[in-house]
Specification:
CATH superfamily of the largest domain in chain A: MetI-like
CATH architecture of the largest domain in chain A: Orthogonal Bundle
Number of helices of chain A: 15
Largest interface: A-B, 23 and 27 residues
Number of domains of chain A: 2
Number of strands of chain A: 2
Radius of gyration of chain B: 18 Å
Number of helices of chain B: 10
Order of helices and strands of chain A: HHHHHHHEEHHHHHHHH
CATH topology of the largest domain in chain A: MetI-like fold
Oligomer: heterodimer
Strand order of the largest sheet of chain B: 6-7-8-3-9-10
Number of strands of chain B: 10
Distance between the termini of chain A: 26 Å
Helix content of chain B: 25-40%
Strand content of chain A: under 5%
Distance between the termini of chain B: 29 Å
Strand order of the largest sheet of chain A: 1-2
């Protein structure tokens, strides 16, 4: 991406020019200017404390928020009395209320836990949340206080919109990179040939994760065999054959609800329905994960099929094609990349789920060497869960990170495959 | 224009409803063999609806109800026994916007034959070549038969769609404003093509462009608000319309 520096430089330049314009000097602008400085300070402080794991303290946090709140209050009074910007007034009042509320609430959040293992995460949460709020409130404060000072031209609005969009992209990428980087950094050291080829032993302190890997791959394969054809078939039916009608609407709503069902509820359902039939077994796991992924696959396939323009369907019918011929030869091929992307993303989701399978398909240790449909398996997410519980009791932290690394690797490579397929079969209309 | 008139299709008292809106009201018109029939009229008057009735394309639309009959070679295509697929094989259609399939040029042309069950590669090659030549596209695409049809220009795509329709060897070709998305040069090419096609085919063309109707067609039907106001030889319609409404439209006083 080419970043044009002019785009960022220009609005700042003209903003500073407007600051030194003598006509602009009055009490109102002084208030606005001070709140601008405070807001900028908050943004910087927020980023600083986030990056250096540093919490500025309850009192300081309160003071900063209260100062900003008071300044905003003055701005509101002034705007109401002197200016005719009533439209913005409501937003400003809401903003000020939020600021004052945060000044009270933020230092008290989150409450301290007595439990030893939670203390650490509670304080991390505290500085993280406080810095996030500092940044967000700061940015809003800047935007509120910059407006009265400087008359935005449509061009500079365009520049700042562009700037904000770039920032949002960066904000999306940063957590992703942090997660991946963290797991890479902590997990890569534990990956050895033995770790990949040996079975779990001594509560995961020794040995490897060969069986969990095999188990997870079996789950993915089984889910693919069941849910891909079913999901794609259902999507084709819903989009091509059953247009409109109350039944279809009910089916659609059901699919959406199924997608919203918490995964642990899937687990409970499977425990009640599949375990009595098939026992704690690979088959039960495959079935419950298929239920979990079906809605994703149906939805993605529907989107992909609906994206195929109607005109080419008509073109096919006009040549004497039957409905099925049209679907098979004209609709499915261009929709295929989208369908397969959705399908594979669904499989990725299935690969990472713990809750649905933990009661119905997995054991921590002792799965058969050759996976069988009717016997339990070991799976990576469950293995990781167990290791996390063992942290503190046994020496498993390194292996936990390494397991996370492998699990993430499997899920990411599934996603990578879907991207490759999508790019390879992409069709332009 | 030859004097011999053979009836190819006969639309009889056709009424059509989209849900509760009546789009065609008691339309009756003949379509003569190896002649071009133009349907003109202001937007929303039912031209496209009428032409889509001729190969039962309206069947795909929900809540669309048709009454009356369309005879093709004296057989009603709306009777219960009719196989829609067979009708559409005999009545090809070219749409307003070029709609090639996102496949190669070769596959686009061969599509109709392949779904009809022709598997022989040699035979398909011949059909592709013949159809492309008929649509005067062969010279332009003969070196890129395996490239995607999406890479062609708009005019080429439209001629590809015509070639695609010709490949299944229809008896009638319906054209729903085939030139509305094209520039004058591509339009001229397609108009020339239509005149040449009349040797072997019957053409029905919907158009907004009255000059085009005058240039291309032998017969013209003028429609207004779902009704067929006037039908006659193109020359008569344009030079000596019987109805006032037709005259107003043709002279550009409304529409």
């Amino acid at each position: 991406m080419k970043l044009n520096l002019e785009l960022i430089k220009k609005p700042f330049q003209s903003f500073f020019e407007s600051l030194f314009d003598k006509d602009n000097y009055n009490i109102k602008n002084l208030i606005v200017f001070i709140s601008l400085i405070i807001s900028l300070f908050m943004v910087v402080l927020g980023f600083f404390s986030a990056f250096y794991n540093f919490y500025i303290g309850d009192l300081n946090l309160r003071i900063i928020f209260i100062i900003l709140g008071i300044l905003m209050f003055f701005q509101i009074i002034y705007s109401y009395l002197k200016l005719n910007i009533r439209k913005k007034l409501f937003t400003m009042i809401i903003f000020t209320i939020i600021v004052i509320f945060l000044a009270y609430f933020l230092p008290a959040f989150p409450p301290k836990y007595d439990l030893r293992q939670f203390e650490m995460s509670a304080s991390i949460l505290k500085f993280l949340i406080s810095s996030i709020f500092l940044v967000i409130i700061g940015i809003f404060g800047v935007s509120f206080s910059i407006k009265p000072l400087y008359n935005f031209s449509s061009k500079s609005k365009q520049y700042s919109a562009y700037f904000v969009l770039i920032i949002s992209i960066i904000l999306i990428l940063v957590p992703l990179m942090l997660i991946i980087g963290n797991i890479l950094f902590n997990g890569a050291g534990g990956i050895t040939p033995d770790f990949l080829t040996q079975d779990v032993s001594r509560h995961g302190q020794e040995g490897g994760i060969s069986k969990p890997i095999i188990g997870t791959l079996c789950l993915i394969g089984g889910v693919a065999i069941i849910s891909l054809p079913l999901g794609i078939g259902a999507a084709v039916f819903l989009t091509e054959y059953a247009k409109g009608g109350i039944v279809v609407r009910i089916i659609r709503i059901t699919v959406d609800i199924l997608q919203g069902v918490p995964s642990i509820v899937h687990g409970l359902f499977a425990l009640a329905f599949f375990v009595p039939l098939f026992g704690i077994s690979l088959l039960s796991g495959i079935l419950v994960l298929s239920f979990l992924t079906l809605p994703i696959i149906i939805r993605a396939s529907e989107e992909a099929i609906l994206a195929v323009p109607n005109s080419i369907r008509e073109g096919s019918y006009a040549l004497g094609a039957t409905k099925w011929q049209t679907i098979r030869r004209v609709v499915i091929p261009p929709a295929f990349p989208g369908i397969i992307t959705g399908g594979i993303l669904g499989l990725g989701r299935a690969a990472g789920e713990t809750a649905p399978i933990m009661f119905v398909a997995v054991v921590f240790i002792g799965a058969p060497d050759i996976p069988s449909l009717f016997l339990p398996i070991q799976a990576l997410p469950y293995h990781l869960l167990a290791l996390i519980y063992y942290i503190g009791a046994y020496e498993v932290e390194q292996n936990a990170w390494a397991t996370a690394f492998i699990l993430l690797g499997i899920v990411l490579s599934i996603n990578a495959i879907s991207i490759i397929i999508r790019e390879k079969f992409r069709v332009e209309f | 224009m030859s004097r011999k008139k053979t009836l190819k299709m006969d639309v009889k008292n056709l009424n059509l409803w989209y849900d509760k809106n009546q789009a065609l009201i008691d339309v009756s018109m003949p379509i003569y063999k190896n002649k071009a029939t133009a349907i003109i009229g202001p937007s929303g008057c039912g031209k496209s609806t009428l032409i889509r009735c001729l190969n039962r394309m309206n069947d795909i639309i929900d809540k669309c109800r048709v009454e009356g009959s369309v005879l093709m070679d004296d057989i009603d295509i709306y009777r219960k026994k009719t196989d829609v697929v067979e009708v559409r094989k005999k009545v090809g259609m070219v749409f307003q916007k070029p709609n090639p399939f996102p496949k190669s040029n070769w596959e686009n042309i061969a599509y109709g034959c392949r779904i009809a069950g022709i598997r022989n590669k040699k035979k398909l090659d011949d059909i592709v070549k013949k159809s492309l030549k008929e649509a005067f596209l062969w010279e332009e695409v003969k070196d890129r038969l395996n490239d995607s049809a999406m890479g062609l220009s708009g005019g080429q795509q439209q001629r590809l769609c015509i070639a695609r329709a010709l490949a299944i060897n229809p008896e009638i070709i319906l054209m729903d404003e085939p030139c509305s998305a094209l520039d004058p040069i591509a339009t001229a090419k397609i108009e020339d093509l239509i005149r040449i096609l009349l040797k072997d085919y019957t053409v029905v063309i919907v158009t907004h462009n009255m000059q085009q109707a005058a240039r291309v067609s032998d017969y013209t039907a003028y429609m207004y608000l779902g009704k067929l106001i006037e039908f006659g030889e193109t020359k008569q319609i344009f030079e000596n319309p019987k109805e006032e409404s037709t005259e107003n439209y043709i002279t550009g006083r409304f529409g």
